[in-house]
Amino acid sequence: MANLKESVDTWRGLERRARDAAELIDLAVQEEDASLGASIQSDVASLEAELRRLEFQLQFSGPYDERTAILAVHAGAGGTESQDWAEMLMRMYLRWGERSGYKAQVIDIAAGDEAGVKSATIEIAGRWAYGYLKAERGVHRLVRISPFDASHARHTSFVLVEVMPESEGDVELQINPDDLKIDVFRAGGHGGQNVQKTSTAVRITHLPTGLVVVCQNERSQLQNKELAMKVLHARLMNLQIKRQQEEQARIKGEHIPAEWGNQIRSYVLHPYKMVKDHRTGYETSDTGAVLDGELGPLLEAYLLGTVGKGEG
User: Fold this and answer.
1) How far apart are CA 59 and CA 62, in angstroms?
2) What does the alpha-carbon distance between residue 246 and residue 238 come to, in Å, rounded to a whole number?
3) What is the pLDDT of residue 53?
4) Residue 256: pLDDT band by 50, 70, 90 thresholds?
5) Which fold has domain 69-169+257-304?
6) pLDDT by residue (tens digit) across 110-147?
7) Smallest Cα–Cα separation from 308: which of 274, 286, 282?
8) pTM
9) Rounded to the nearest 5°, which phi and psi values hold at 222?
């Protein structure tokens, strides 16, 4: 009901603004007042942008598209290089969440050995978050001059990104407490040292699937357990979705690529600058904006199934 009311209120608000703009145009014509022109142009541009955003949301037809997204990044082979790249991607998604008006927070993080992160789990909370971010699922490739290499050699790094919808207590996804193994331990900091004297970190193993979730960011054991259960629910739902997709693909005779198969997107910082999505062909030379969370054009190109070039 709350989501439906929000939709109705949004469209009615847009209708009111359009009516007001039309009346202002009529007034400007009657009074022959050219000074109102700039204000009218600004209002119309704002209305058009909002209308495009709302029309784009009509692309979201999946059963979980409206939900909050749980996103995980995992550094690939390559040690410090890949771990640094994983942290860069984590920041990119957090910045995208903030730019897009979502509540973005880190749920759990495993620090890298020297820099970056080995893995991180973040929550992007808000309506349509999963609908947007499901486009990010897959392997992301970075090419750059390594800041960790004294010889300044060019390195290629890979990071796997998982995107899962929040479970929201779905009836069909009930977890049997007997299927869980729950361990508690002291939260670790950089280099593996213990940073707390009490055991607040929580590791939950789902025995039937072998899924393991660790959460150690919060100060209390209860908070960490609640967050770990939220992530476990999301991972189980993601597993359920994958199985359904694989079954549909088997019936259709489609090929299901391996999780660590071909990368979905490349980010090249040397010898030239370019971000290219290999699924759509969309590319842009503004790598700085993309890594600062400006993902809109890339997401839209994928979700709309369009092919083209972004602005350099």
Assistant:
1) 9
2) 12
3) 78
4) very low
5) Alpha-Beta Plaits (3.30.70)
6) 999 889 999 999 999 998 999 999 999 999 999 999 88
7) 282
8) 0.76
9) -65, -45
- What is the chain's length? 312
Instruction: Tell me how far apart the terminal alpha carbons of the chain are, to the nearest angstrom.
Output: 43
What class is the 177-252 domain?
A: alpha beta
> Structure tokens of 297?
């054009």
Domain locations along the chain: 2-59, 69-169+257-304, 177-252
Interatomic CA distance for residues 207 and 210, integer angstroms? 5
For 254, the token pair is 């489609």
- Are the C-beta atoms of residues 86 and 267 closer than 8 Å to each other? no
